[in-house]
Write a structure and sequence with these properties.
Elements: H1 3-17, H2 19-31, H3 38-48, H4 53-63, H5 68-75, H6 78-88
Helix pairs in contact: 1-2, 2-3, 2-4, 5-6
Length: about 90
């Protein structure tokens, strides 16, 4: 197994083992470099905001030495930032 199939299987296994941790890593990857992956960030924040974002925020803070709230605040601006922070639900 190699290439995209290998990456897909790897992602499925990581998601099944610890879904909040996997999603926290996806959020980190979407914001870590210059140029935010807005599409991934919006998709994850909107889809998980009412489901398990509290657990994802907890995993994010444990894995990366800053909260998801702080990371969003440092990576975005304007109304986009305000909306994401409202979806985030609070500062840990």
């Amino acid at each position: 197994m190699s290439g995209d199939v290998k990456q897909a299987m790897y992602g499925i296994v990581r998601s099944v083992k610890n879904q909040p941790h996997y999603i926290a890593e996806c959020l980190y990857k979407a914001m870590k470099c210059i140029g935010t992956d807005d599409r991934a960030l919006i998709r994850i924040m909107v889809s998980r905001s009412e489901v398990d974002l509290f657990n994802i925020r907890k995993e994010f803070k444990e894995t990366h030495d800053c909260s998801l709230h702080e990371f969003i605040q440092g990576d975005t601006t304007g109304d986009y930032r305000k909306t994401l922070l409202m979806l985030c639900g609070g500062q840990d």
